[in-house]
Amino acid sequence: MSRKNYGAILALGLLVPATDYGQALQPSAALDRYLASARDDGPACSDLVFSVQIDVAVPSLKKHGSMTGFKRIVRPGQIVYQGLRFTGDNFVRNQVIARFLTHDRNASGQGDVAITPANYVVTFEKTADYNGMEAYVFLLKPRRKRAGMFRGELWLDANTAAPRRIWGDLVKSPSIFIRSFRFVQDYQTVAGCDTPLRILLTSRARIAGPVEMTVWMRPSTEGPDAGLGSALSGSSRTGQ
After folding, report:
1. How far, CA to CA in Å, does 240 sit from each of 45, 89, 98, 99, 207?
2. Residue 26 and residue 45: Cα distance in Å, rounded?
3. Number of folded domains in the chain?
4. Which pLDDT tens digit goes with each residue over 145-176?
5. What contacts 24+ positions apart, CB below 8 Å, involve 124-128?
6. 122 forms bridges with which residues in the sheet?
7. In which domain, by residue range, is 170 found?
8. CATH number, residue 178
């Protein structure tokens, strides 16, 4: 199942689908179930389409931008963006959104930084409320300082062990131009596939200052036209 770690907050009721509220698992059992399912990149995450909304702000430079379109998961490890439409500043389009899309398309092989006992010390912290549901919160401490690894938390549904939230601060900057990088991912379950619904990214660049991005990915039954391309060029409206 997809576990990729990568605006105003809308009603949290959008974040979680209907769930079977049976007897809660023990925290250790929930963690074991999550770790087992995370190793399965099976057909449940194939042939899914999501409408995408990306909003970016670079306050210190007074630059903004938004992009809409569709994300299609053809099969595990193969992602296509189609029908992309952009409004805003070229800097946001080329330096922020384009890099996010490229990373998302190429981030299938994450075994070396995945949430596993080999990569993280995982410690049960507490039980918390997540949109009216019981969730187990686990602290994640990376065993080594490697690009892509983070220090943060994993929230699991106490009844199903499905991920509800993963957040953290990267322990190693992805670039010499980035001082810090934090992400928050809230999850949804679509056709048996656990995939991000909302992604919040906050970084502090040495030159541009704070960069804030919000990404929403909602299931779509319409999908893009077959003739629309996935590249940024040719399918965007760009401001100055």
Report:
1. 38, 5, 16, 19, 20
2. 27
3. 1
4. 888 899 999 999 999 999 999 999 999 877 77
5. 124/27, 124/28, 124/31, 125/153, 127/27, 127/158, 128/155
6. 140
7. 24-219
8. 2.50.20
